[in-house]
Amino acid sequence: MDLGGRPVRVGIIGAGMSGLFLAHHLAEAGIEYQIFEKRDGVGGTWYDNTYPGLHVDVITRSYEFPFARKNYWSKRYAPGSEIRRYLTEFARDEGIVRRVRFNTEVREAMWENGAWTLTLPDGTTEVFDVVVAATGFLHVPKRPTFPGVEDFEGHSWHSSEWDHDVDLRGKRVGVVGTGSSGIQIVSELGKRGHDVKHFIRTPQWIQIRQNKKISPLERLLLRVPALAGYWDRRIAKLRVATEGSETWRLVPGAERTVQTQRFYDELAEAVPDPVLREKLTPKDPPGCKRIPKSPDYYQVIQRPNVTPVFGGVQRIEPNGIVDSDGTRHELDVIVYATGFDPHAYMRPMEVTGPDGLTVEKIWADGVYSYRGIGLPGMPGFFLLNGPFAPVNSVAIPTCLRDEVGFLMRLLETMQREGRALAPSEEATDAFCDTVRAALPGTTYSLCDNWYTDKGGVPIIWPFTRQQHADQYADADVADFERFDARGELGRPPAAGRHRTAS
Ligand code: NAP
């Protein structure tokens, strides 16, 4: 990377929350960037997911960018359509949208002559000093491969690809999957009175949380800058009251026992029939999977128009689903709420660094990263919310505040030194070892969940929010190796540890 005095140029892949967040900071710092987005709109997961009942599951004030407060949410946990509108307006108002190339899925990133060449779908290329994969981690749908899946004669789709042209009135709808998506979809379709069968291979613990409307007066007060601290404290308290403190998932102890019992009690209260309750009771302890939140799923599943079907799907037939007991369920529509490939990150894009090193080689035995943002041997290539990011426990804007703050320090160093940075293997190993050592005490390690990688390790942050903030404040640029234009390693120019203000 030889800048010859010119400013560093950044290519961002993805115009979801992380890409937009980063773009804001780059613009503020006067750094040139270009975003590539595979869809024809901004919002990432909030662009893709439009299913009925979609709501964000964190209190929405904590889901806003700290530098773009709107507080116009209709409910405590806002509908997905409001988040999408918020991100679209943000990109428009900040002029970011003019820097997005839509319908442009980057196929390949290749390190050549000290810079990254991106290959676009039309075969053209663009060159950047730095590339940031702001691709998110839930963008590649996991489609089931049930026997006969292609033969279904009704309509079917994945939860993230909702077909709004199909009118569900009068149709028999099957929903497969009990993650957050399946729970929200069944709750909404059931309340609308549709004829729904919910295929439950593994029951989930569900957190019962009322979704209060926000009154016009409260919205007004939420916008008063002098009251910001008051609202933040109040929301933090409310979060603890509804979800428990953040530590019960992290360390065993009395609070874990209390929180666990709370799930059993709430289920018992909501589902009086002991047979149904038994079937709805998960075998795994609460908190080992990401917990779906719903005010009314347990009520909805007991409505006459909604039928739970326990066990797996044996096969699909032209007119419905045959369950694991061999019972046929005639259906007009099947919704596969079967999740995503959470460890895809920037893939299927191919990434090749110096000496032919690829992301596939780095992750051959399972995904990992340096603090969720860097990969050893990949100079000037970064991720946001990469492996070990706190995607279960910390609201995305808070993760991004920490990650992007450090990334800006790295960019400043690259600009000043004219050399590309990649975390050293030693620093990456030290980070991963610390995280892995803390995981066994957490609830995440108590069952297989979507964090679990092929080595059986959950890829998730096992510490608190504050520890997440601290690790970036303390992160040291000396953890990074310097690469020259030929991709050869050089020494950091200053002896010892170098840190700049964030
Ligand atoms: P998910 O949590 O991975 O759940 C997938 C579901 O599909 C599971 O119940 C799984 O059952 C089932 N499944 C998968 N393959 C199956 C098969 N072959 N046969 C039968 N069942 C099958 O996926 P998700 O619900 O899309 O949620 C993913 C994540 O997205 C969430 O954890 C959350 O982080 C995020 N999300 C957030 C929101 C929000 O903020 N409001 C909403 C939706 C999603 P098994 O458990 O038996 O494998």
Overall average residue pLDDT: 94
The number of helical elements comes to 13
- Which ligands does the model contain, each kind named once? NADP nicotinamide-adenine-dinucleotide phosphate
Number of domains: 2
Assembly type of the chains comes to single chain
Order of neighbouring strands in the sheet with most strands: 3-2-1-7-19
Q: What is the CATH third-level topology name of the largest domain?
A: FAD/NAD(P)-binding domain
CATH architecture of the largest domain: 3-Layer(bba) Sandwich
Largest beta-sheet details: 5 strands, parallel
Low-confidence stretches: 493-502
Helix/strand-derived class? alpha/beta
The CATH homologous superfamily of the largest domain is named: FAD/NAD(P)-binding domain
Question: What percent of the residues sit in helical stretches (DSSP H or I)?
Answer: 25-40%
For the terminal residues, how far apart are their CA atoms? 23 Å
Describe the structure.
There is one protein chain. This protein folds into 2 domains: 9-38 and 104-140 and 341-490, FAD/NAD(P)-binding domain (3-Layer(bba) Sandwich), CATH 3.50.50.60; 149-336, FAD/NAD(P)-binding domain (3-Layer(bba) Sandwich), CATH 3.50.50. 28% of the residues lie in helices and 17% in strands. It is built from 13 helices and 22 strands. It has helices at 17-28, 45-48, 80-93, 180-191, 216-222, 228-243, 254-270, 274-280, 297-300, 359-362, 396-417, 425-438, 465-473; strands spanning 9-13, 32-36, 100-101, 108-112, 115-119, 125-128, 130-133, 155-158, 172-176, 195-200, 207-208, 293-294, 306-310, 313-317, 320-323, 328-330, 333-336, 350-352, 381-383, 420-423, 480-483, 489-490. The strands form 6 sheets. The protein has a 5-stranded parallel β-sheet, covered by helices on one side. β4 (108-112) and β5 form a beta hairpin. The chain is globular. Mean pLDDT is 94; it is low at 493-502. The structure holds NADP nicotinamide-adenine-dinucleotide phosphate. Residues 55-57, 138, 144, 159, 176-182, 184, 201-202, 290, 312-313, 337-339, 450 line the site of NADP nicotinamide-adenine-dinucleotide phosphate.
